[in-house]
């Protein structure tokens, strides 16, 4: 059997496992608590791990709009009904088991759900966790006055009923298979704390959260670091370290230098930059590995800008990007070229999409034929619209900045003006990104939630936040066929039925180019030797998804 066949079969198995998780009575995993070799882990939490991050976590209510680096805090302070493991299998967390159509947790028509909960969970303030908290959380997400991060899936939930403190049920307006995956990233918040707040968007809880997770809120020094402390009353096996520290180091070269010098123990997002990979893997007393991610890098366009409304412009821009030069010359061959948002390791990855070709002559011809002519200033224009736009990304990312400079020079040869306008992370990924206030950005994105292929949140027209929708369709992409396919794919629980649907979605998105895909990320992850229990998980957005299992070797 070839390597490709093995990977394909493995991906298919993972997809099938995801759809039927719980049927085998899954009751947990060493990854979610007790290390596989727990005999050598401390009897009580000891030591600390310092995680270096390139951006500062700032949103601590996990239900509110947030970015990837916030997830490390959320996964450590809070619990969800379920978690997803590195193999894409959903495991119980606050729930006692994963419901499905075989164990009766989900009815055969996919409409009625019944969840059994653990009876040994307490909030960090000592109050007992119950089904009332789950009901409150799901209702808060859909509160029109609450700034929810994600409402897709949740918007289908009806008739939530608390059957007992350890059992809850609801009805789905229509079958929505991805909802189990959505619930792996829906952290439950305390009713008894937040129900008292007149405005949950500005609650004190949002800056000093109370969860049920393995770590409690410690202290935050804005602009420097955030400290979490072990929850000694956690219901699971762990945590094994006494303190978990997230240190903010916005300059990625300095982030690597502090890993090299030992000032940080583990490199978090955006990990070690590829230009340091060669040296990093030779460092003594460090473990450095290349880990495939579900995220991909793209040149993201705001399709409501007049410069980008015409497909010919988007095709010309794509033809003018020399992916190979960027990947090899700037990223040292670490990333993998891609034509889609779907990760290569997914069962739903479409390998038959048209391959990008760098061709400046073709790019110029496309623009000429579409009527974009150069003006007196050398910049192309059509119907009064100049082919001039800004491109933004996070300040302090030297590799992306080099990509910008390279593209700026290349585009200029075609009569396209690209102005570089970078912003601090907190500004860049705030309303500027969420409300589509940008012209174009260079961004790394994970479109999948867990391992499920549904991308409604990113590509459906009802997910355009700038037009009043709830979601992350920041490109403001709208294609009725894609909308219909997304709705159809979400109604099926069978991966074999869903596969051709998501293949077609990828074909349409590749044709329409709402974003110009560059490469799939492979992260260079590094940690000190002696940290045990660390396991990469490409199905989450954070390296700290299982920090409760970390411990220092004695």
Task: Give an overview of the whole structure.
- This protein has 16 helices and 21 strands.
- The protein folds into three domains: 1-27 and 79-191, Dipeptide-binding Protein, domain 1 (Alpha-Beta Complex); 33-78 and 213-285 and 529-554, 3-Layer(aba) Sandwich (D-Maltodextrin-Binding Protein, domain 2); 294-522, Dipeptide-binding Protein, domain 3 (Roll).
- It has helices spanning 3-20, 70-77, 131-141, 179-183, 191-194, 252-261, 277-280, 311-319, 323-330, 360-369, 398-413, 425-428, 431-434, 456-459, 480-490, 495-512, and strands at 48-53, 82-84, 90-92, 112-116, 157-164, 167-172, 215-221, 225-230, 243-248, 266-267, 286-301, 336-337, 373-374, 380-382, 385-386, 388-392, 417-420, 440-445, 515-528, 531-532, 551-552.
- Mean pLDDT is 91; it is low at 1-29 and 34-39.
- The protein is 26% helix and 20% strand.
- With 554 residues, it is an alpha+beta fold.
- Helix 8 (311-319) runs antiparallel to helix 10 (360-369) and helix 15 packs antiparallel against helix 16.
Strand order of the largest sheet: 12-19-11-18-16-17
**Tally of contiguous helical segments:** 16
**How many structural domains are formed by the residues?**
3
Percent range of helical residues = 25-40%
Describe the structure using short key phrases.
554 residues, Dipeptide-binding Protein, domain 1, D-Maltodextrin-Binding Protein, domain 2, Dipeptide-binding Protein, domain 3, six-stranded mixed sheet, 16 helices, 21 strands, 26% helix, 20% strand, globular, disordered N terminus
């Amino acid at each position: 059997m070839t390597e490709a066949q093995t990977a394909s079969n493995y991906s298919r198995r993972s997809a099938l496992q995801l759809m039927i998780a719980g049927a085998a009575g899954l009751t947990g995993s060493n990854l979610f608590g007790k290390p596989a070799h727990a005999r050598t882990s401390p009897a009580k939490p000891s030591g600390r791990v310092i995680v270096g991050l390139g951006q500062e976590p700032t949103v601590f209510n996990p239900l509110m709009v947030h970015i990837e680096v916030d997830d490390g805090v959320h996964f450590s302070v809070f619990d969800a009904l379920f978690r997803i493991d590195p193999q894409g299998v959903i495991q119980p967390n606050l729930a006692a088991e994963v419901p499905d159509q075989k164990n009766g947790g989900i009815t055969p028509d996919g409409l009625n759900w019944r969840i059994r909960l653990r009876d040994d969970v307490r909030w960090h303030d000592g109050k007992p966790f119950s089904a009332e908290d789950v009901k409150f959380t799901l209702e808060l997400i859909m509160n029109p006055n609450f700034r929810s991060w994600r409402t897709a899936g949740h918007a289908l939930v009806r008739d939530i009923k608390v059957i007992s403190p350890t059992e809850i049920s609801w009805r789905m307006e229509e079958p929505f298979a991805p909802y189990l995956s959505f619930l792996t990233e829906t952290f439950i918040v305390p009713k008894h704390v937040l129900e008292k707040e007149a405005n949950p968007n500005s609650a004190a809880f949002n800056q000093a959260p109370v969860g049920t997770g393995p770590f409690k809120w410690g202290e935050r020094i804005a602009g420097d670091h955030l400290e979490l402390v072990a929850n000694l009353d956690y219901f699971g096996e762990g945590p094994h370290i006494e303190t978990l520290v997230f240190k903010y180091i916005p300059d990625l070269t300095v982030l690597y230098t502090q890993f090299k010098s030992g000032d940080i123990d583990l490199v978090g997002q955006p990990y070690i930059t590829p230009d340091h990979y060669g040296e990093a893997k030779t460092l003594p007393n460090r473990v450095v590995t290349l880990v495939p991610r579900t995220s991909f890098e793209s040149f993201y366009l705001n399709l409501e800008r007049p410069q980008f409304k015409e497909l010919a412009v988007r095709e010309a821009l794509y033809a003018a990007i020399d992916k190979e030069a960027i990947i090899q010359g700037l990223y040292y061959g670490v990333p993998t070229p891609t034509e889609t948002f779907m990760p290569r390791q997914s069962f739903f990855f479409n390998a038959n999409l048209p391959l990008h070709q760098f061709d400046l002559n073709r790019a110029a011809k496309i623009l000429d034929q579409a009527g974009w002519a150069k003006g007196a200033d050398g910049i192309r224009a059509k119907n009064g619209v100049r082919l001039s736009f800004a491109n933004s990304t996070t300040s302090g990312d030297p590799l992306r900045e080099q990509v910008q400079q390279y593209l700026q020079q290349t585009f200029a040869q075609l009569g396209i003006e690209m102005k570089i306008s970078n912003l601090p992370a907190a500004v860049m990924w705030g309303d500027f990104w969420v409300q589509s206030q940008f012209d174009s950005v260079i961004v790394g994105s994970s479109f999948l939630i867990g391992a499920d292929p549904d991308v409604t949140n990113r590509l459906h027209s009802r997910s355009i936040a700038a037009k009043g929708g709830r979601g992350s369709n920041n490109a403001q992409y709208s294609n009725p066929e894609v909308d219909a396919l997304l709705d159809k794919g979400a109604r099926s629980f069978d991966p074999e039925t869903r596969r051709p649907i998501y293949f077609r979605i990828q074909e349409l998105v590749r044709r329409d180019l709402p974003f110009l895909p560059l490469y799939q990320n492979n992260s260079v992850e590094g940690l000190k030797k002696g940290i045990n229990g660390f396991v990469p998980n490409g199905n989450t957005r954070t390296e700290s998804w299982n920090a409760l299992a970390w411990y220092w070797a004695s």
